[in-house]
Amino acid sequence: MPSSNENGALTRPHVGLFVTCLVDLFRPNVGFAAVKLLEDAGCTLSVPEMQTCCGQPAYNSGDATNARDIARQVIAAFEEFDYVVGPSGSCMGMIRAHYPEMFPTDALWRGRAARLAEKSYELLSFLRDVLGVECVHARYEETVTYHDSCSGLREMGIKAQPRALLGQVNGLTLNEMNESEVCCGFGGTFCVKYPKISERMVADKVQSITESDATTLLGGDLGCLLNMAGRLKREKSRVKVYHAAEVLAGLTDLPPIGDPK
User: Fold this and answer.
1) Are 85 and 15 a contacting pair, CB within 8 Å?
2) Angle between the 222-234 and 195-211 helix axes, to the nearest 10 degrees?
3) Residue 10 in this model has a pLDDT that exceeds 60
4) Are residues 116 and 139 in the same domain?
5) Which among 104, 128, 152 is the end of a domain?
6) What is the domain range of residue 65?
């Protein structure tokens, strides 16, 4: 739903960027990459200052009251925009798939949540599916492998889009790992509630990454990437970890995710 001027002519779509907590606290470079990609694709961009968490931790923990309060704040912050876009399948899956079902007895907020959900997208799927981006101007001369995060894959249908975009990066070679769709063990609160199971899952995932012979691991969810980067570091692996948006935007000058330098 692009904006139009007083004469009815289409203008640049006005996008509200949902930054996400993890990007804000641990990897702002992902946010900068999202800004660059969206502006290069012709969007007018705003980053609402009143945005907070999407509410997923509270929601997954059964705290419906606080989850609804957080959802109301997000809805109020973003409903004015043509689209809401974030560099996380997990957070955007929360907004798109779960917000509308959080207000079963409140018709007003249920409607507002549904309208926001309809225009909420994960960054890479938005670039590909909505804006039709087919070419990116980036170079990354490495062999990469890609992890499909659970929420992005199963709630948002994100699979082909990042691979299509990465296929346009000069010098990049994609080696698919075995079981790329299998969970890394992070799962938000899952890794806290079931640490031993989570540890085994990320160990298996790192083995698949290593066997792919890739020099870089990419993904679309920072939580997953932080989890796998931590395990790779503990195993003294030389595999670098980046959010796919950083590679697509050509913003890989910073140390990889999980590197303290």
Assistant:
1) yes
2) 80
3) no
4) no
5) 128
6) 14-128
